[in-house]
TrEMBL record:
Reaction catalysis annotation: hydrogencarbonate + H(+) = CO2 + H2O
GO MF annotation terms: carbonate dehydratase activity; zinc ion binding
PANTHER family reported in the protein's UniProt record: CARBONIC ANHYDRASE (PTHR18952:SF265)
Superkingdom field: Bacteria
E.C. number(s) listed in UniProt: 4.2.1.1
Keywords: Lyase, Metal-binding, Zinc
UniProt-listed Pfam families: Carb_anhydrase
SUPFAM superfamilies named among the record's database cross-references: Carbonic anhydrase
Domain Alpha-carbonic anhydrase stretches: 1-210
Name assigned to this protein: carbonic anhydrase
Family statement: Belongs to the alpha-carbonic anhydrase family.
Length: 210
C-alpha cells in the first residue's frame, strides 16, 4: 500500500495585497536606515549583483547591519498597495547575517513601487522605454561576453523621500518561493524622472574589462 504523502502548508507566501486601513501602527519598529552609496556590480541575467569586495550598501534594521546583495525589477509590480499596482517594482535584497539565531528570516527585501512622471498635459510618461534601454544594455553585453557586464549604480536614486513602510513576514516570489523573507514595502511610490534612472555607467571607476 503506497504511503500517503502530506504536503506541508505554505503559510506566508508573497506577494500580498497591502492595505493601509487593515494595517496597524507598530511603534516598536524603527525607521529603516538606508546607508546606500554608489557600488559596483554585475548584471547576471535579470539581476544586478553587487560585488562583495568593495564598500557596500546596507540598511540598519533592528540595530542589525544588513548588506545589500542584489536588486531586480518586476513589471508590473507584484505587491498591491491600497489596490494600486505599480508599473515596476524594485526589489532590494539584503542579507540578514545573524540568521538563523537572532532572526527567523534569511533576507530583508525592500520593495519600492516605481511610477513614471506625469508631463504637463497630464499624460504619464511610460517607464517601458527606460526598462527596454536597461535590457538592451544587457543584450549587448551578452553578445560580448556571456550574460555578464559590470556597472556602477547608486540604489538610493530609487528611494522615495518618505520611507514609511509596510512590514510582514513572507516569501521569495520566484523560484521555490521559500518563506525566508522579512518584507519591507515602502508605502510611497517613487516617481521616476529623466530617461535613465538606473544610471548604469560602465565608464565609472568600478568598471572592469575582464
Ligand atoms: Zn523580486
Amino acid at each position: 500500500m503506497p504511503a500517503p504523502l502530506v504536503t506541508p502548508q505554505l503559510t506566508q507566501q508573497s506577494p500580498i495585497k497591502l492595505h493601509t486601513m487593515r494595517s496597524y501602527y507598530a511603534p516598536e519598529l524603527r525607521p529603516l536606515e538606508f546607508q546606500y552609496t554608489k557600488v559596483a556590480g554585475t548584471l547576471v541575467g535579470e539581476e544586478f549583483v553587487l560585488d562583495r569586495t568593495g564598500a557596500g550598501c546596507h540598511v540598519v534594521f533592528d540595530g542589525m547591519e544588513c548588506p545589500l546583495r542584489k536588486l531586480h525589477f518586476h513589471a508590473p509590480g507584484e505587491h498591491r498597495i491600497d489596490g494600486m499596482v505599480s508599473e515596476l517594482e524594485l526589489h532590494l535584497v539584503h542579507e540578514i547575517l545573524e540568521y538563523p539565531d537572532a532572526y527567523p528570516s534569511a533576507y530583508l527585501v525592500v520593495g519600492v513601487m516605481l511610477e513614471s512622471k506625469t508631463d504637463k498635459t497630464g499624460q504619464a510618461q511610460p517607464l517601458a522605454p527606460w526598462l527596454r534601454g536597461h535590457f538592451d544594455a544587457r543584450a549587448v553585453a551578452r553578445g560580448r561576453r556571456g550574460d555578464r557586464q559590470e556597472y556602477e549604480v547608486d540604489p538610493s536614486v530609487y528611494l522615495p523621500e518618505d520611507r514609511a513602510y509596510f512590514r510582514y513576514e513572507g516569501s521569495l516570489t520566484t523560484g521555490d518561493t521559500e518563506e525566508v523573507v522579512t518584507w519591507t514595502v515602502l508605502r510611497d511610490f517613487r516617481t521616476i524622472e529623466g530617461p535613465a534612472p538606473l544610471q548604469l555607467d560602465p565608464r565609472a571607476a568600478g568598471w572592469s574589462s575582464r
